[in-house]
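for the writeup, i need someone to sanity check this before i put it in the appendix. the sequnce is what the collaborator sent (i think, or maybe the updated version? ugh). structure was predicted straight from it, no edits. if anything looks off just tell me and ill rerun, i have time this weekend
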Amino acid sequence: MAKSRMFYFSVLVSVFMLSGGCATQYQLPASEPHAKVRFITTTGGPKRVLIFENDKCEKGEIGGQIAVVGGLGFTTEENKLNMYDPPTKSLRIREREIRANKAVVVAFSIDPSGYTPPIGSCPVSVVFVPKENRQYEVVHTYSTGMCGAAVVELVKTPDGKISRIREPSARVLERPCSYSDL
């Protein structure tokens, strides 16, 4: 029984890892100003973090998968952008650079590899305008049967503390963008 569970787990992880390699990958345009973003999920199960050019879920020149948060088999080694208030070790966090000064859509999408996602794995998308050289957290949440997303800017106060300030340009999309939109 234990061997069959281990085999099933190995197959599941392999399928998930292979399916992640097939997605269009987000590339930060070299000539664009950038901002740093920490993507966080408070829910179980893996979620693809996708970037879209606009709230119509169009891939455009920048669209693609930027990260996977949650799930198994990932480390925090890639979270080295020297962002404010670094997290303790967590599989539910990824830090990336994204384009700044233009609207960008961040979508938390359920992995399409065919397994039944756990409760709290519903998709959600949020659009906001990150400002150049600033730092943000985009948080995927689940509460009382509904998913949500919030965007906060990380701001260093004069006394050296870090404040989280709600990003006024952020709004959750009525229809979330998904992996199939890429």
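Helices lie at 2-22. Residues 5-21 have pLDDT under 50 and may be disordered.
thx in advance!!
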